[in-house]
Amino acid sequence: MAEASGKTPSDVDLSSTASVVDLVEPLTNLSLDPSKKPSRNKKAPRSKAGKQNYSFNPDDWKVDEEDVMIPAAAIAGKSILSLPKTTDNHQRRTETSTIATIGEDKAKILSTKVLTYYSTDSQFKRHLESAESLTFYAPPRFLQHRNGTFKYNLFKGWQGYRPIVYPRKLPRLGGTLAVVGWYLDSIRNNLGNDGDIPTIDFISHKGPMVKLASLASPDCRHGVSLEMNVVTYGKHILLSNNSYRDIEGPMSLKFGYLGHKFENVVCSKDWPENGKMPRKEYPMHNNETFKLVMNIELGKKNDDVSTRGTSPIISLAFPSEMDCRLQPDVPIETLSNYAELKTHSSGGSEHSFKRKLFKAYLQANIVGMGEVIIGFRSFSGFLENIVRYKVSDIPDILHKDPKSGEISERLKRQFSPEDSMDWLHSCLEWIKNNIEFGREREVAWRVSYDPKSSTIVMVKIEDPEIVEKITGYVYDDICVRSLDHQTQ
């Protein structure tokens, strides 16, 4: 791990670290059989908050600038990548080329590295090599009553809650570029200009990458909104969401609050020795985060990482928010010691649960987390149960037929982690093959998902005014300079 003095960060090999930390039993008896989700409790209490009409003022959610719109007249070219019709048929077509059918040899994650890490404090300031915002999974015992039931209301505090919306005038990838640039500078300072500086093809966020990967499953395409701006800087391809936050209305905001609230009540900045925390009130905020900056290599099993220049290996760097650690006093680089936290309605269908679990699996697996922890709640917001899932066990849970209990070939095709990583690799390779390097601030691209045609569409823009908007939207001069000069 890189030190503040600029020492070279060490690589993390998931194959060698996966067994470093044995997954521990929970502090309380919150864990159930991970192969089963809790049955619907028809007599679950309903909160008064759940019956209220929550106030929603759109003015509270306005941001400084609108998303960059692309008029038809500004489009200088278009490429189309078709999603696989089924998971058995990987024939993908574009207007300019055809990607060959992929058989057993599918692309996967070849290597994973932790480049560095940072914390964002309550004032949105980033602190490199700081773990001040890192939390631990330590649910207090008062969440569970003596008879084993839950009655904690996750809607508590909702009416006074106003989540932070970053001003749109801020560059979307500014902080990411600064951190990645700082990492590359630390390598240069130690190895010199002739050192083995990692090649990074794409710099992005984890969210768009997981969305792209999930599109391989037809069940995960409904309601997906994906629109990314693409620009280049040197040999790097920068991808950033065009919409920073999807705002669909008060209902989506309410359930987003439930997720943040769940994280607050089951996590603590301090690890309690006896498993008890004197916590009764939980002020809600969504601004403090801890992130690992990851570098993953995607390619086929026969690809040699040492021959990146001549093989279709894709190198991707992105910050990954880590919800919590499972145990204290474990090196920060130990990826299996982290968990992804989610909430889900206990009254939902088996299919909706598996769809949620599959997406959570992709989020956790792409960075090597050890667990996914789901808080099952009633529609009115009461926490009813907490279940911990080992990430390595989730594929079997997804593929098990709920009636027969046997592994279903249909479900294996429906929720295929292998197909998702293979599809993500194909998308990134396609984007890389259809852009032009060396024309910073002259050309930009917009990549979007068209659900009607099940295609990924990439349009080329050369209109100077729009290109300048997109370029400034993704990065600014100060952040870009950090790729070449030491970040102060």
UniProtKB/TrEMBL annotation:
Keywords: Hydrolase, Metal-binding, Nuclease, Nucleotide-binding, Nucleus, RNA-binding. Coiled coil: none annotated. This is Decapping nuclease. GO terms for molecular function: metal ion binding; mRNA 5'-diphosphatase activity; nuclease activity; nucleotide binding; RNA binding. Its EC number is 3.6.1.-. It comes from Saccharomycopsis crataegensis. InterPro entries: RAI1, RAI1-like_fam. It catalyses: a 5'-end (N(7)-methyl 5'-triphosphoguanosine)-ribonucleoside-ribonucleotide in mRNA + H2O = a (N(7)-methyl 5'-triphosphoguanosine)-nucleoside + a 5'-end phospho-ribonucleoside in mRNA + H(+); a 5'-end triphospho-ribonucleoside in mRNA + H2O = a 5'-end phospho-ribonucleoside in mRNA + diphosphate + H(+); a 5'-end NAD(+)-phospho-ribonucleoside in mRNA + H2O = a 5'-end phospho-ribonucleoside in mRNA + NAD(+) + H(+). Its cofactor is a divalent metal cation.
